């Protein structure tokens, strides 16, 4: 009997040992759904699947990141290179900012087909990018490359990034933007380029950005803007160009962004001579509230706000030819300023000469105007633009309060527009408060009586 219980007890222990072994094997091989290994030095969170490996002094992208990870955080490490085999997983959000990335191989992100946000900012050693660096990211919506010391961008860097909406390129060292660089970014709404070293905006630099809502270009070194640089930006509402080196803007440039709502142009050395007239006219038509535009030249207008000048300040300026693509001028003057020449012919003692910017004005034909009407002065008496003559400087000024109170009706008091005004005209145009009664002349009354009798005779 004792032997029988001994055998039975041994069989029970063997059965329990075998059951435990099978349970362990099942747990290893048939692990519960949703449980995945987490890379070393990382922390993983479910729902949504997140792998956080930040601030671990990693030098390479860690292996073993679950393929179905939706968010992967690798910021603030010491990763130096991104290769085509660096990412063996499919994720929607990838943060790599604050590393030491110096090189990104073409196609490095090609396996990340569903990636929507990529942050490569704050990598100060990233000075160069290959053309195919972002190949395959056709679902990317947000790309961060701020503070990377990028000096240039390949022409095909953003090729086929049709879904991109936010592009952060601020605080790099960009000197130049190639034509059609952004042409595939048809859905881009925010473009941040401030804090670079850009010097000029060419005709096709923003071509294709038909849905752009805000464009930040402040704190650059922009000196020249092509008259058609903004031609595709019809939906732009925010434009920042402050703290640059702009002295003037072509009139057509701003006409292409009629939907603008917030405009900042302060912190530029504006020249408020004849070259400022197109921008001044745009402000009159757009009637937009913007930052101040302080004039730095000519000397008589230094410190004034370009927006608060009036048409009389441009009385001696030729109007640009609207059909010209090169910016040449004609001698056609508006009816509101023609009278000025007949009543205020520049005397020979008050000398001034207009030196036009060759980039905007190719010709200054005054053949249709008599020589005595042309002011002259030695070339050494004016700065890079021109100085005002005494007659032009004597024109009445308009303060901001009067400007906004009488917007669009500044010259309502002018009653004589012809070159030769009637005798006795006392030139009341310079006084906005003058409202002298107009007494009809005797020939005028006789004409009215004749017309009245004629009508009565016809309708009897």
Automatic annotation (TrEMBL):
Domain LRRNT per the UniProt entry, residue ranges: 37-71
Pfam families: LRR_8
Family annotation (InterPro entries): Cys-rich_flank_reg_C (IPR000483), Leu-rich_rpt (IPR001611), Leu-rich_rpt_typical-subtyp (IPR003591), LRR_dom_sf (IPR032675), LRR_TM_domain-containing (IPR050541), LRRNT (IPR000372)
Stated family: Belongs to the Nogo receptor family.
GO molecular function, one term: ganglioside GM1 binding
Domain LRRCT: 268-318
A cellular-component GO term for this protein: perikaryon
GO BP field: positive regulation of Rho protein signal transduction
Entry keyword Membrane: yes
Record's signal peptide: 1-37
Protein topology in the membrane: Lipid-anchor
Keywords: Cell membrane, Cell projection, Glycoprotein, Leucine-rich repeat, Lipoprotein, Membrane, Receptor, Repeat, Signal
PANTHER family the UniProt entry points to: ANTIGEN BSP, PUTATIVE-RELATED, RETICULON-4 RECEPTOR
Organism, as annotated: Mastacembelus armatus (zig-zag eel)
Name of the protein: Reticulon 4 receptor-like 2b
Compartmental location: Cell membrane; Cell projection; Membrane raft; Membrane
